[in-house]
Structure formats: C-alpha cells, structure tokens
Specification:
Elements: E1 3-6, H1 12-16, E2 44-49, E3 52-58, H2 61-76, E4 84-89, E5 102-106, E6 111-113, H3 114-117, H4 124-143, E7 146-147, E8 156-161, E9 164-169, E10 176-177, H5 183-206, H6 216-235, E11 238-241, H7 245-257, E12 260-270, E13 273-285, H8 287-296, H9 302-320, H10 326-344, H11 355-373, H12 379-389
Antiparallel strand pairs: 1-4, 2-3, 3-5, 4-5, 6-8, 7-10, 8-9, 11-13, 12-13
Helix pairs in contact: 4-5, 4-6, 5-6, 8-9, 9-10, 9-11, 10-12, 11-12
Length: 410
C-alpha cells in the first residue's frame, strides 16, 4: 500500500492512478513526457498525467522526506525552487518486494536543464549568463540562511528572463537551514559550485557542445567573483563622502534589479562621511515582478517584468507626455500594446516561449529592423516579422509530447 503526503488534495486523484507497484524505470512510455531532463544520480522521470506534468525521483525514504521539507520551507519563503507535491512510501511490487520511495515535484514550465540550453546555443557568453544566474540564486538562498551543500548547474533549472536567465533550485537533498548561516558554510557552497561547474563545462567540451578553446576554468572561477560582488552589494556597508543621496539611490536601484526589495536602512554620519547599511528584504524578492503584477495582473520573471515596465514608461512618455501616473497608464498599455501582440502569436507557435519572453524578443527584433531599414518600425510589423522569421526557429520549451511506445509497452 502506498502512503502519500500531498501538498494539495487536488493532486491525489492523479497520483493514485500511477503504477507505484513498478520500478520507475519500468513505467510505460504512455506516462512519460518528452521534456528536457537533466542528469541525476537517481532514477528520475517526467510524468504526464491528468493534464499535469510531474518530476518523480526514486530516493530513500528519509532523504525524500528531508528534501520535501526543505522544498516546502523554501517555497514558503518565496525562494526560486521547484514545488514539492508528495512523498510516496511503502511501495511494493507484485511479489511483495520493497520498492524505493519517491519524491514528486511539479515540473517547472518553460524551464531547461543547462545541457539543453547548450543543445542549440554554444556561445561562451551563454555560460557566463548561467553562472551569473546561479550566483544570484545562491545569494538569495544564503540570505534565507539556507545551505545548499551540492551547488551545480545539474541541480538547477533555468528559465529565460529577457536577455538573461533565472535559476531555480531543483535538488535539495543536502540542503539545510542554519540560523545564522556561517561565512564558512556560505563560502563552502561557493567553492563546491566552482568545482562542479568546471567539471560540468569540461564535460560539455568533451561532448563538443562547447568549443575546446573556451577557458572553462576561468568561467567556473567566475562564480566566486560574481557571488562575492553580489553578496557585498546586498550586505556590504556603503561609505560616501558628501551628498549621499545619489549613491544610496544607485545602490537601491541595483538591489531592485536583482529582484530584491529594500528593508531597513541605517545611516551613520560623521562630518561629511556617511556610512549606510541597507538591509535587503530577503523574504520579499521579485521587486519588478510584483510591481508589474500589481499594475497589470501579469506574473512573469523579474527581468521580463523590468523590460515590460520600461516599455510602459516609454508608452506613458510618448502618449501622455509623462503627465499621468503609471497606474493610470498600465491598463491602456495592456489593451493597446501588450495584449494585441500576444493575440497575434500563431497558435502553433505558442508553446515556443512564454508570452512575456516573446514580447521582449519582439522589442529587440523591432530595434534591429529599425536599424536595418533606417526607419521606425511599428510594433505590429515587428511582431509579424518575428513570428515569420525568428520564433519558428526556437525549440518548443513548454510542449509536452508523448514518447513513442517501445516494444512491450502497453
């Protein structure tokens, strides 16, 4: 008999129909979703059932419950991670033999393992973007006093976020909360990330996904420098002589760009020297994302939100001379600019990318068209060109296919 620990009762009917009396690697191809899947030391399958997609991992019972609890707490803290659904224990096969417990999580829509990012994009600049995204994720987790213990590209999923990537924790087997999290544990996480990334990039070179001339050691070492710069930005003291207003405003803007709100701010001054300590509101990340959602109802990635808010500001300046507040313009921008473009996306291309990512890429495409044609290109014209010439070349990053049945599958 299976014992389910389910986050939402809505999942129980779907989970109960799965063949828990069979080893995971013997499950029928009818259940498998042909989505990109990363490397794991455990048996992992992406399962399509009841219109939903789950990641199912066979793992020891104690570890499964530990990882489930870690993911639950991270989710409650609004950390970027996969959503835990269930732990399945007491599994037995048809002969009464014990089977390994399973952890079930939601599949993160439009996400890619790092190897799949490289199935088409081979530029070293892409590696730098992934490393930076992982460094940002590590800073966010450390600010929540979470020690990861096994930081790597393989244990992370990436979603396109405007011209960058956002990183999500997938594997929390070795994770622990420590309050406070010591500098030693933080830096150990960074060093583990550095070593693992170098190994993973060497593996990409061996598979000819990354040019052999690329200095993977330098790229791997970059996570330490990036992390330390970001950590200092988030927690370091700002010392300013004279008028501190501009320096404080710039620091706050950079923190917001990383997706953090600002909590308390302490300012001490001696003569013309100001010492400023800005406390990030670590339980409230996604600054741009939440602002856009409040204005429009759209729920997108943070850099995508930043791009859309910027476009909204341009619309406000051009159409209304900047006289109306953004709150008054947001609905008009949605109706006049964003929604018409989204509605133009051909049905057969809608699973390629998220709508917000498509809109972002159309804005870039419009700029290139305007440069090449030496004239202003309207948004609708740019969208039609993008749908015809660019979007069809993207992979279907959200599409779920049925895998062909293998001999013996029923």
């Amino acid at each position: 008999m299976e014992k389910l620990n389910v986050v939402s009762p809505a999942y129980a009917p779907t989970l109960l129909t799965m063949p828990w009396d069979q080893p995971l690697d013997e499950w029928s191809g009818d259940l498998l979703a042909a989505l990109p899947r990363g490397i794991s030391r455990h048996t992992v399958r992406l399962i399509s059932a009841g219109g939903l997609v789950f990641a199912v991992k066979e793992i020891g019972e104690a570890v499964a419950y530990h990882e489930y609890r870690m993911l639950r707490r991270l989710q409650e803290l609004d950390a970027p991670c996969v959503v835990p659904v269930a732990v399945v224990t007491n599994r037995e096969d048809a002969d009464g033999g014990a089977l390994t417990a399973c952890l079930v999580t939601e599949h993160l829509r439009f996400s890619l393992p790092y190897r799949d990012v490289f199935s088409r994009v081979l530029e070293p600049d892409t590696v730098s973007k992934l490393v930076r995204a992982l460094a940002v994720l590590l800073v966010k987790l450390h600010l929540l006093n979470f020690y990861w213990g096994d930081v790597s590209l393989s244990n992370t999923l990436f979603r396109r976020d405007a011209d960058q990537f956002s990183a999500y924790l997938v594997d929390a087997e070795t994770g622990e909360f420590h309050e406070p999290l010591s500098p030693g544990r933080r830096l150990y996480d960074v060093d583990v990330a550095r070593v693992n990334i170098i190994g993973e990039l060497m593996d990409l070179q061996a598979g000819q996904y990354l040019d052999a001339s690329v200095d993977v050691i330098a790229l791997g070492n970059a996570i330490e420098q990036t992390y330390l710069e970001l950590w200092d930005l988030m927690t370091g003291e700002l010392v300013v002589e004279g008028d501190a207003f501009d320096a404080i405003a710039e620091r706050v803007a950079r923190i917001n760009q990383l997706g953090f709100d600002v909590g308390e701010m302490q300012i001490e001054h001696t003569g013309d020297v100001h010492r400023v300590h800005i406390e990030p509101a670590v339980f409230s990340t996604g600054f741009n994302r939440r602002r856009l959602q409040a204005l429009t109802g759209l729920d997108v990635q943070d850099r995508q939100a930043q791009r859309l808010l910027g476009e909204m500001e341009v619309y406000r300046a051009v159409r209304y001379g900047g006289r109306l507040p953004l709150e008054a313009v947001a609905h008009r921008w949605m109706v006049k600019e964003y929604e018409p473009v989204v509605h133009l996306i051909p049905p057969e291309l809608r699973e390629k990318l998220e709508p917000a990512q498509i809109f972002h890429e159309i804005l870039d495409h419009r700029w290139f068209l305007s440069q090449n044609l030496s004239r202003f290109v309207p948004l609708a014209e740019a969208a039609e060109s993008y749908f015809e010439k660019v979007l069809p070349g993207h992979r279907d990053e959200a599409m779920v296919y049925r895998l062909p049945r293998e001999n013996g599958d029923t």
